[in-house]
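Re-run requested by the PI after the first attempt was lost when the workstation crashed. Everything re-entered from the original request form. Ligand of interest: iron/sulfur cluster.
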Amino acid sequence: MSDLPIEEIRKLFAFTRVYLDQQHELFGPSLPDLMTSPEISAEAREKARLLDEFQASFSACQNCKLGKTRKNLVFGSGNPNAKLLVIGEGPGADEDETGYPFVGRAGQLLTAILKAIQFTRQDVYIANIVKCRPPQNRKPEPDEVAECMPYLKNQIRIIRPAIILALGATAANTLLNNTDSLGSMRGKIHTFEGTPLIVTYHPAALLRNPNYKPDTWQDVQFLRKQYDLLVR
Ligand code: SF4
């Protein structure tokens, strides 16, 4: 540690802080042992076990070129028994550094959006279309998406959410296998392999263009309504 330049040490502390904040947000003040806590159902425990096993099975994946430039593969995180699954496009710089999805500025905005409709990050599971960062945050290319999608599909089969929220056009177009505009996909209930799916803007787009906020608010209220109908 003493050989590290001061900037690197600062960065390390900053990411440790982000990680601990995220764990606090996910699990509250005391971190339960998922495998032994009596508050965790047998179903959640089994899903957590399956997800861990699955994550370990491809932790060194090099199936596409993104494997060569990533620092950390970002598998996904949250409640393995979540009824709401949130899916974004791909990891950014902060996510690549930490190995966790949505921990940067867009992640903080996502946490606030979820909170506004009475979800904590402990309630949901969050993943991306591709698990390694595309260089310069470019869109993932079709061959990368094709290689990575089987992982997400398997993750979805393990979690079995009641509803999916797709963030941004890349996530929505990939999951719905179309090329429709984001605007035309909003406000409707689509399905992904039988699971209802709702589309809204990616939080990174909201950071770039706050004019999308009223539409996003409308979308997430619609999501909450559908969630409440599906999950009783
Ligand atoms: S993006 Fe997906 S397919 Fe490509 S290397 Fe990473 S885990 Fe493997």
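Saved to the shared folder this time. The chain has one domain: 6-230.
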